[in-house]
Amino acid sequence: xxxxxxxxxxxxxxxxxxxxxxxxxxxxxxxxxxxxxxxxxxxxxxxxxxxxxxxxxxxxxxxxxxxxxxxxxxxxxxxxxxxxxxxxxxxxxxxxxxxxxxxxxxxxxxxxxxxxxxxxxxxxxxxxxxxxxxxxxxxxxxxxxxxxxxxxxxxxxxxxxxxxxxxxxxxxxxxxxxxxxxxxxxxxxxxxxxxxxxxxxxxxxxx
Length: 207
Fold this sequence. Notes:
Structural class: mainly beta
Number of domains: 1
Radius of gyration: 18 Å
Order of helices and strands: EEEEEEEEEEEEEEHH
Strand content: over 45%
Largest sheet: 7 strands, antiparallel
Mean pLDDT: 93
Low-confidence stretches: none
């Protein structure tokens, strides 16, 4: 899959132009409901993939491990969930994805899955949830790791009033790994002052 990019960055306008190519090692035709009414669904399309980035503005090229999924639904997320934590980790056989969240009614959901490079999905018992340091915007973070290991935030890639994306060092079923981790606070997203900031953070440009 080729993604063509031609955008302007914010708040300082700068051209971002180029392409991203995703090469799946396996495609998965699976969808998981995140709520009882199946209004919100998650599809791990290519949990094991190779990605090539080629930008002309700014001049930047790199290649590495990648991931492609889809969250889709029939109602606003903030009406169904309070928060969630998600992470994808590379493992020897492919990748592991762990997805945890709390719904508005107080119930929780938890998914822990391994995806191999031949298209096989295997669920496993998630290890304990352990706290991570909060972000500068005071977004709570936590991640799953083996009971004898304390996960560590290696780098915070994105820190916003309601969302954080990070790199973490963790251990899953005895295997040390680096994971891409995200924390989403839909309680914070619903706040009026955050809603006022969204047009500046995610502007919509007429074409």
